[in-house]
Amino acid sequence: MSMFAIRRETPFDIAPREALLDEVMGEARFTKTAARLRENRLPAEGLSFVARASRRLIGAVQLWDISAGPGRPAILLGPLAVACDRRNRGVGTALVRHALDEARRRGHGLVLLVGDAPYYGRFGFSSERTQALWLPGPYERHRLLALELAAGALDGARGLVHATGRSAPTPDLPALVAGALADGGPGSRPHRNSALLAPRAA
User: How far is CA 7 from CA 99, 107, 111, 156, in A?
Assistant: First the structure.
C-alpha cells in the first residue's frame, strides 16, 4: 500500500494542484455546470486539502460555500482529483473522508456534489432527496447527490443551488504582466481559477 499524507492546502500547493487538475481533466473542467458554482470564488474556509507522497502532490479536494435553495446553507464537494498513476490506491477515498470529517467539525450540515452515485454512495451520498433542487445550467439529474452531516439538513430543500462563498480577489493584471516581463517573458500561462472536476464527478 502506498504511503501518503493529507493536509490542508497552503499557497505553495496551488501551482502543483492546478497542474494536477490540468493533467486529470484538461480544459473540459471549466465547461461543466458545477464549475459555475466555483467561478471567481474562494473555497470554504479551511476546506481545501491535498494528498502528498514524499514531495509530490498526488491528490486534491476542495469544498465551496453554496445555498441549496433559498436560505439553506450548504457546501459543494469538488473538484476531487487523483494523479493517474495513483488511482485505486485509496487516495480519493481518504481525501473525501478527511474533507467530510473536517466539514462536520466546522459545523456544516449539508454537502452537495455532482458525480457518480456508485462511487460517492460509499460515503452516504444519494440523489433520493435532491429532486426539488436544480443547478444553474445543464446536468444529469441523477448525478446531483447530497449528504446530510446534520440530521434534517436537507428537509424541504428546494430551488436553485447558487454560490454564496467569498469572492476571489481580482488579479492585478499590470503587475502580472510586469512580473512576466521581468522573468523574461510569458514562459508559462497563469493558472485559471481552480474549478476542476473530480475524476468521477462534474
Answer: 10, 19, 20, 35
